[in-house]
Amino acid sequence: MSTIPIPGCSDSEWKARQQLAACYRVFDLLGWTELIFNHISLRVPGEPRHFLINPFGLHYREVRASNLVKVDVDGSVLSKTEWPVNPAGVMPHATIHRAIDAAHCVMHTHTTAGMAVASSQAGLQITNFYAAQLGGRIAYHDFEGITVHADEGPRLLASLGDPPKPALILRNHGLLAWGETLPKAFYTLWLMQRACEVQIAGAALGPAIAIPDDVQRRCAIDAHAHYGREAMGQDVFDALVRLVDRDDRLWRL
């Protein structure tokens, strides 16, 4: 415990902080950043009403394990910090963490491809390899403006469905994914992002080839059987963290 620079921080919380800080650096590596905006949140182990989120004002490349902010699902800041948190990030993340027991990690991005697809009438078309793996797992939520109003929370949850789908396209806005673990959420978001990129790249070529419904269903089932295991996405995430470590290891502090 003496190596943890935050007084009162448990070993499990510190490990969660390091994993989340690593994820911010991975997002930066992939180009999934938006200046100081957007968020990845991770529930504190053993504290279901508390989660960690990025300090508002720092670029993802500046996020470290020690400067992540601990908040509760009501938006109250619980850790000592020099930085505020962004209400537009806390509201949707807190809503999902509060209502979905399995939602230990929530990710939201404003990538160009993701926003373009989210702003299109058709949304994400199940016409490529990556999109097919998401068949039956995608939900949509209509745009209501900047996500700072708590009364949007119940409508957001209703849009996710029952049982809640792990992939959410926020219309006119961006992409959101949640998962039982950070690597699981990451893998779902990566599938969404790649599916959007392929759809955008192919748009200039004319109508895409439709994937038959039965093939969609089989692909989604096979993807879930193969990738839906407990360690889903862990090997991919670990590989990207190794790449991050080649250039900078300050995120660990």
Average pLDDT works out at 95
What's the β-strand tally? 7
Helix content: 40-55%
N-to-C span: 14 Å
Structural write-up:
- With 253 residues, this protein is of the alpha+beta class.
- The chain is built from 8 helices and 7 strands.
- It has a 7-stranded mixed beta sheet with strand order 3-2-1-4-7-6-5, sandwiched between helices.
- α3 crosses α6.
- The two termini are 14 Å apart.
Short synopsis of the structure:
This protein is α+β, with helices and mostly antiparallel strands. The protein contains eight helices and seven strands, in the order αβββαβααβαββααα. Strands 3-2-1-4-7-6-5 form a seven-stranded mixed β-sheet, sandwiched between helices.
Task: List its traits.
alpha+beta, 8 helices, 7 strands, 253 residues, 7-stranded mixed β-sheet, 41% helix
Topology:
Layout: H1 11-30, E1 39-44, E2 47-53, E3 69-72, H2 87-99, E4 105-109, H3 112-118, H4 129-132, E5 138-141, H5 153-160, E6 167-170, E7 174-179, H6 182-203, H7 213-227, H8 234-247
Parallel strand pairs: 5-6
Antiparallel strand pairs: 1-2, 1-4, 2-3, 4-7, 6-7
Helix pairs in contact: 1-8, 2-5, 3-6, 6-8
